[in-house]
Amino acid sequence: MKIFRNLIHKPSEKNFQQKNHNRNRAALNYLCELGFFMPEIRKALLDLNGIKLKYMVCKKATFGTLSRTNQGSLHNKQAQIVIAKKLKLTVNELFHH
Question: What is the 3-state secondary structure (H, E, C) of the chain?
Answer without folding.
Answer: CHHHHHHHCCCCHHHHHHCCCCHHHHHHHHHHHCCCCHHHHHHHHHHHCCCCHHHCCECCECHHHHHHHHHCCCCCHHHHHHHHHHHCCCHHHHCCC
